[in-house]
Amino acid sequence: MSHPIELLASDLNGHGGVFCPSPKADMKIWNSHPKVYLDVASTGEAKCPYCGTVYQLKAGEHVGGHH
Q: Does a structural domain hold residue 12?
């Protein structure tokens, strides 16, 4: 099982999410599945339905407008 990818608030886009595949996940094949948008800000973490990579907001990080 892989470790979650910790994200800073500044890593999220204007909608509070990230796209997977992501260079932050240190993926060997960056285009190993279709690009998918993951909403991290709403719950603090999101899991990619294709590869299972979990992206989570680092402890103490806050996204503007979300608490």
A: yes
Rounded mean pLDDT, 61-65: 76
Residue 67 located in a structural domain: no
Contacts with 66 (C-beta within 8 Å, 6 or more apart), sequence order: 16, 41, 42
Count up the domains in the chain and report the number: 1
Residue 65 lies in a domain: no
The structure tokens listed for 7 are 């994200």
Q: What is the DSSP letter of 45?
A: E
pTM exceeds 0.85: no
